[in-house]
């Protein structure tokens, strides 16, 4: 069993910055890849970014790769998402996710609600 808990969301003005955190507990943290997803009101959940178990390989959705940075600290059992120059399009609930196996993330794959482990989400609202 893995428990993920996001934090760091809130209200931010367009053009501002925010850092999300994902704290993990349960199995050894450094053994699996991690990812961020987001879901805007009325839209499907979508992939944002992923990072491999060592923290040296990252994957970004095309429209966030120049403004978001994913990172992890295996010693602290934490994953982060730095959001810079946010726009109103970034308003969403942001979720962290990890697999229960060694499956790799891709830009087009969104796990079901029961596949792997999801956090409860943290809301980011960007005001214009």
Give the helices and strands, then pairings.
Blueprint: E1 3-7, E2 10-13, E3 18-25, E4 34-39, E5 46-51, E6 58-60, E7 68-73, E8 78-83, E9 92-98, E10 117-118, E11 122-127
Parallel strand pairs: 2-11
Antiparallel strand pairs: 1-3, 3-8, 4-5, 4-9, 5-6, 7-8, 9-10, 9-11
What is the average per-residue confidence, as pLDDT, rounded to a whole number? 94
Number of helices: 0
Shape descriptor reads globular
Largest sheet: 7 strands, mixed
User: What is the structural class?
Assistant: mainly beta
Give the ordered list of helices and strands: EEEEEEEEEEE
> In which range does the helix fraction lie?
under 10%
State the end-to-end distance. 40 Å
The poorly predicted ranges are none
User: Mind telling me the C-alpha Rg?
Assistant: 13 Å
Bin the strand percentage: over 45%
Q: How many E-type strands?
A: 11
What's the gist of this structure?
Helix content is 0%, strand content 46%. It contains no helices and eleven strands. It is globular, with a radius of gyration of 13 Å.
């Amino acid at each position: 069993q893995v428990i993920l808990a996001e934090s760091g969301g809130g209200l931010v003005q367009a053009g501002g910055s925010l850092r999300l955190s994902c704290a993990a507990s349960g199995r050894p943290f450094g053994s699996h890849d991690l990812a961020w997803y987001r879901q805007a009101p009325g839209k499907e959940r979508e992939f944002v970014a992923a990072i491999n178990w060592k923290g040296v390989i990252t994957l970004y959705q095309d429209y966030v790769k120049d403004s978001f940075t994913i990172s992890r600290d295996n010693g602290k059992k934490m994953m982060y998402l730095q959001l810079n120059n946010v726009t109103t399009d970034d308003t969403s609930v942001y979720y962290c996710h990890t697999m229960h196996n060694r499956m790799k993330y891709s830009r087009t794959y969104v796990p079901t609600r029961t596949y792997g482990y999801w956090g409860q989400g943290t809301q980011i609202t960007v005001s214009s």
